[in-house]
Design a protein that fits this description.
Chain lengths: 355, 301
């Protein structure tokens, strides 16, 4: 009898543990950190908080005490006097950058079942927040809804805007062009594959975007007409980096491609030896790309790897930021959350989550 | 290892079914669950046979005698047990081995469904890496069509009606009902109400539907769909094997009319009554109670 009871308890416990651990693999949120910077302060969105960090020191965290109901992965954006953060439960927060206090919260979308994964964008007096509930939410600077636009699938990437139009990439393969004033559709273009990364607007009026299938497009922002299309090897998960008349983008093949912005010709493909999921950042006459395996590479103007090669213990999926002549990376599955490297490749500071 | 041997093949089969059946993830989950349950059916039958054998041992007079005789000598009792196993032709691992084989398959199925619903970029990255390039082009399959009936399979399900201010969790309710039905149908009535095992089983029958209902309420409805299909197939499998205890669904005052045929159907696979010589009349009720506990198989979730 005792044996039966013990067996039953073990069976139930095992089942519960297996079910819950299985759930933890996917349905419970798990993705890479969000990272942004303003005025020398780095803002990290990861797991249950937004951390404001300066030189490795925590200025504040939001929420002040860990709250398991809140999770943050979307990189924060900034108005002149607020940090705008969007969470996994589909709330948007206005946060005071001085002390991390909550100025307002937008909760109208919380029951839609969606999540904010892509970062919000602030354009003049409008906050644009793409949600996985398929909607782009446009708010005023007090967190009041102005309009929404519904697409055909989840939105994981920050849109781009020239102040009049909003260019919104969606996983439904379409790039949408909307009026910033009222969210009305101007045009949409099927690019043949999901769009998990942001478009880039050039000063000359060109619009560049890469798709998951490795297609890179230059489009006319007024009409959506394709000016050129080039395919690279592997999937592209991050926005291209535009430096003068050259586009740089990494792919899951482990290569960083250097393309001419006017015609999309591949000038060089540099193999970094590990998938490049994050985007690149300009740093001291070079462009820096992180690899998934935790290495950072700087490429010179000809696309050659320089001697600047810091590494971290962990995985790099997030596009770095440059603050005070330092490259700051957000680390997943490592012993630190942030690390900053100077022009010599030396680690200047690091950050681990306070307990 | 687990990823390469279990999750990757399962994810590919699931997405292959999705691709060739009109790109509807709901239909793919249903077909994939049926396929896995059909493929693991022989294991389930083996497991039930093994459990029935173990129950047969419990009612064997020689074993009872040995238990009494060697109650203070565990080593000798173990030797006797092995001898009686041999005599009765029972494989001591007959019930647990098929269950252990089924476990990774069922968990793999579950994880493949979760992974395919990719709720975040990192989940999607992992899913893309699991897809065999020779089987399909991942970038053409993404995004999956998660819409099935009124549900978004990537989100918890609620049915919103215009006259109600809140959504009804229809699928969670169906999960609870089918889990309860499955538990009840697989659990025979106990001859002895004070039997602790029966009491524990009764508690489980009440507890499991709430636990499963909570999961269905909280997690993506694609999982709830899998729970429902899995429960329904489980009930069908037991019914086809003649193991379903339909009498347990009836009110107790109706039991005498239904109890006998149901009990008979439970006495042996296929609904055939077990020969009376295997059991002394005085032990029959107890024997059936124990034997039928073999039906309370929750490992097949």
């Amino acid at each position: 009898m005792k044996t039966s009871r013990v067996s039953l308890v073990i069976l139930v416990s095992t089942l519960a543990a297996l079910l819950l651990s299985s759930c933890a693999g996917g349905t419970v949120y798990n993705t890479w950190p969000g990272l942004s910077a303003k005025d020398g302060v780095v803002y990290l969105a990861y797991i249950n908080a937004i951390f404001a960090v300066q030189d490795g020191n925590t200025l504040w965290r939001y929420p002040e005490k860990p709250d398991n109901a809140k999770a943050f992965y979307a990189p924060p954006a900034f108005t002149s006097d607020l940090v705008i953060a969007a969470d996994y439960a589909n709330h948007i927060y206005g946060i005071n950058p001085a002390n991390g206090s909550e100025a307002w919260v937008f909760a109208e979308a919380k029951d839609s079942g969606g999540h904010f994964v892509g970062g919000p964008l602030v354009v003049e007096d409008t906050i644009l927040a793409p949600s996985s509930d398929h909607n782009l939410y446009a708010l005023d600077l007090n967190g009041k809804k102005r309009w929404t636009y519904r697409t055909g699938n989840v939105l994981w990437a920050q849109p781009a805007s020239d102040g009049k139009m909003v260019y919104l990439p969606a996983m439904d393969h379409h790039l949408y062009a909307l009026n910033l004033s009222d969210g009305s559709l101007v045009w949409k273009k099927d690019l043949g594959s999901a769009l998990p990364s942001s478009p880039v607007l050039a000063a000359d009026g060109s619009l560049y975007i890469a798709s998951l299938s490795g297609d890179v497009f230059a489009l006319d922002p007024a009409t959506g007409a394709v000016r050129w299309n080039t395919q690279v090897e592997g999937e592209v998960w991050s926005a291209p980096l535009l430096v003068e008349d050259t586009l740089y983008l990494g792919s899951s093949s482990g290569k960083v491609y250097r393309l001419t912005a006017d015609q999309g010709q591949v000038q060089k493909a540099t193999d970094l030896g590990s998938p490049v999921i994050a985007g690149g950042v300009r740093f001291d006459e070079t462009v820096v790309f992180p690899t998934e395996s935790g290495a950072l590479f700087a490429l010179d103007s000809e696309g050659k790897i320089t001697s600047w090669k810091p590494t971290v213990n962990g995985k790099l999926y997030t596009t770095p930021v440059v603050v005070n002549d330092q490259v700051v990376v957000a680390i997943k599955d490592g012993d630190k959350l942030l690390a900053a490297f100077d022009q010599n490749g030396a680690e200047v500071w690091s950050f681990t989550a306070p307990k | 290892m687990w990823d390469a041997l279990i999750i990757a093949p399962f994810t590919n089969i699931l997405l292959f079914i999705y691709n060739v059946t009109g790109q509807n993830f709901g239909i793919a989950i249903i077909l994939f669950t049926i396929l896995i349950r059909v493929l693991t059916h022989p294991l389930m039958v083996q497991q039930m046979k093994g459990t029935a054998g173990m129950q047969q041992l419990q009612s064997d007079p020689e074993w009872k005698e040995a238990q009494e005789k060697y109650k203070n000598d565990r080593e000798k009792l173990a030797q006797e047990q092995m001898r009686i196993y041999k005599k009765l032709g029972i494989n001591p691992f007959g019930s647990c081995l098929p269950m252990l084989i089924q476990f990774p398959i069922i968990i793999g199925l579950y994880q493949a469904i979760i992974q395919s619903m990719a709720n975040t970029p990192l989940d999607l990255l992992k899913m893309v890496r699991h897809i065999y390039p020779w089987l399909m082009d991942a970038t053409k399959v993404i995004p999956l069509n998660n819409t099935f009936l009124w549900m978004d399979l990537g989100q918890p399900e609620r049915l919103n009606l215009p006259f109600l201010p809140f959504g009804i969790p229809v699928l969670a309710i169906i999960v609870m009902v089918t889990t309860y039905l499955q538990s009840k149908l697989m659990t025979p009535p106990s001859a002895n109400p004070k039997d602790q095992t029966a009491q524990m089983t009764g508690m489980m029958n009440l507890y499991m539907p709430f636990f499963m209902g909570y999961l269905a309420l909280t997690f993506a409805s694609g999982l709830s769909l899998y729970f429902v299909v899995s429960n329904v197939i489980g009930i069908l499998q037991y019914a086809l094997l003649g193991k379903a205890n339909w009498s347990s669904l009836l009110p107790k005052n109706l039991l005498p009319a239904f109890g006998k045929p149901a009990d008979q159907s439970l006495s042996a696979p296929g609904g055939k009554p077990r020969p009376a010589k295997q059991d002394a009349p005085s032990n029959r009720g107890k024997h059936e109670s124990r034997k039928n506990n073999a039906g309370s198989n929750r490992a097949d979730r």
